[in-house]
Design brief:
The protein is an all-beta fold. It is built from no helices and nine strands. The chain has a single domain, classed as Jelly Rolls, CATH 2.60.120.10.
């Protein structure tokens, strides 16, 4: 982990975040250091969603029972970890394997909109994300 502006940040585990267009980039670990994991299911599903975050927007806390990959199209998306408050930021053109087991949330701390694509590698009947029961995870 490294310190930035008084906040602790986890070291990125993905290969070069500045890959050239057309370059093939491989990911083997999530941003929290978890190994890449595929579902063991007779009913696998890959789903995708394009999402946007307004400046100053902060998502709910979450974990993912399935593996997900995010790719930032515009702006900067920051992932904040509940455990220690550390943050990792990803700008347009960067992708990353999202953590599965660590409580986290997305943030747009910038002054411009952020857009990203989230791809989930899951299984039929398994949710893509879970949120904590009401009142169980308090904002820091």
């Amino acid at each position: 982990m490294t310190a930035t502006s008084g906040k602790t940040t986890r070291a990125a585990t993905a290969p070069s975040p500045h890959a050239k267009p057309g370059a093939f980039t491989q990911y083997t670990e999530t941003i929290a250091g978890e190994p890449l994991s595929y579902p063991s299911s007779p009913n696998p599903i890959v789903s995708m969603n394009e999402l946007a975050m307004a400046p100053g927007q902060v998502s709910e806390w979450m974990v993912h029972p399935v593996q997900s990959f995010l790719y930032v199209l515009e702006g900067v998306v920051t992932v904040e970890f509940a455990e220690d408050g550390s943050r990792q930021s990803f700008k347009a053109g960067q992708g990353f394997l999202q953590t599965r087991a660590h409580w986290h949330r997305g943030r747009n701390d910038g002054d411009t909109p952020a857009r990203f694509v989230a791809v989930f590698m899951g299984a039929k009947g398994v949710p893509e994300m879970l949120h904590p029961p009401a009142g169980k995870l308090v904002d820091k």
